Amino acid sequence: MNKGLLIVLSGPSGVGKGTVCSVLRHKMPELVYSVSATTRQPRQGETDGINYFFKSRDQFQELIARGAMLEYAEYVDNYYGTPRDFVEQTINSGKDIILEIEVQGALKVKETFPQGVFIFLMPPSLDVLKQRIVGRGTESQDVIDSRMSVAAEEIGLIRYYDYAVVNDEIEAACHRIQSIVTAEHCRKERFLANLPEAVKTAASEKA
Amino acid sequence: MNKGLLIVLSGPSGVGKGTVCSVLRHKMPELVYSVSATTRQPRQGETDGINYFFKSRDQFQELIARGAMLEYAEYVDNYYGTPRDFVEQTINSGKDIILEIEVQGALKVKETFPQGVFIFLMPPSLDVLKQRIVGRGTESQDVIDSRMSVAAEEIGLIRYYDYAVVNDEIEAACHRIQSIVTAEHCRKERFLANLPEAVKTAASEKA
């Protein structure tokens, strides 16, 4: 059984990860979308195992303690994280899975899955990013400045990623991500790893 | 000025490199197709600089002597090879160039351009390759056996390539090659190398 790819889509807050991912769901229905775990209460219409895996605080902390979370963070008194089991089961079943997560979380995932495909979604420019952060609503100048400073630091972490996709236009960004997934399936290392044993033996005898 | 990509499409004799390349010309008109040099006589309708760079034997040997051929080989008393100038001028002008060449020639090109994108076109199976070689015409069993043996050896050289594209269906193979080119343009290393100097300095200060 060929293993699926673990694809991590990340980038600074405000770059449009969520929007790109929701368009990708339509364009790439063959991809499995990772479901996060959280301790926050389900909202109306949210289903356990579809929108989130809903956990109690004790349950979540126990998952952390036994290494069952690939990455996690606490926001506004609630835990959010990526359960390891779901990711491993998916790639072991031969399907590709995509994780849409924050920059720091992505680097945690890389510790466990260095063979993952790490894609950094870039704003076309810092000015555009600022407009998106300002455009979100009623944040004060201090909040905007602080978010811009965090974004600049996060962009510095691009060096730990494999690919940079500029989110200048959603369709174009999605096309680039689709191309990256197709190309990664053609990488020689994966191709050779997925050959039947008999062929691999023949190939290595040529070496 | 961003540099273009050097893309090398290779694979065993009979795998369909030429056919794939001719379909790619329609699908990817933005790619520059490398023009080989040869000492053979122009055939009716062939134009110098379009189909081939036509050279005398002395001229070709002088090009070899001063390192102006990226790779070359002699078939049936004629030289064929890839002029280095044309490749370098194209990528320096920011355009991508594709070379469709034999497996051994591709490895020579890699010595000069290790940063190239090396794609190995694979037959769906050795049986299919054999059918294609047999189907070409009137070769004797000895010739077929010898070609199959060469093909098997060439497939063993896939380990020096970056990508393996199975030529199961021409449209699918072309789509994979297009995806590889798009993905390679998104690679972090190329993205960072092509950033303006001011941004690079800012990014390295974060390091």
How would you describe this structure to a colleague?
The structure is a homodimer. Chain A is an alpha/beta fold. The first copy, chain A, folds into 2 domains: about 1-30 and about 95-205, P-loop containing nucleotide triphosphate hydrolases (Rossmann fold, 3-Layer(aba) Sandwich); about 35-95, 2-Layer Sandwich (Guanylate Kinase phosphate binding domain), CATH 3.30.63.10. Chain A is built from 9 helices and 9 strands. In chain A, the strands form 2 sheets. In chain A, strands 2-7-1-8-9 form a 5-stranded parallel β-sheet, sandwiched between helices. The longest helix of chain A has 17 residues, at about 170-185. The two termini of chain A are about 25 Å apart. The model of chain A has no long low-confidence stretch (mean pLDDT about 90).
Q: Tell me what the CATH architecture of the largest domain in chain A is.
A: 3-Layer(aba) Sandwich
Report strand order across the widest sheet of chain A: 2-7-1-8-9
Number of domains of chain A: 2
Number of helices of chain A: 9
Mean pLDDT of chain A: 89
Tell me the name of the CATH class of the largest domain in chain A. Answer: Alpha Beta
Secondary structure: number of strands of chain A: 9
> Which radius of gyration of chain A do the C-alpha atoms yield?
19 Å
List SSEs of chain A in N-to-C order.
EHEEEHEEHEHEHHEHHH
Measured between the Cα atoms of the first and last residue of chain A, the distance is 25 Å
Structural class of chain A: alpha/beta
How would you describe the shape of chain A?
A: globular
Full CATH superfamily name of the largest domain in chain A: P-loop containing nucleotide triphosphate hydrolases
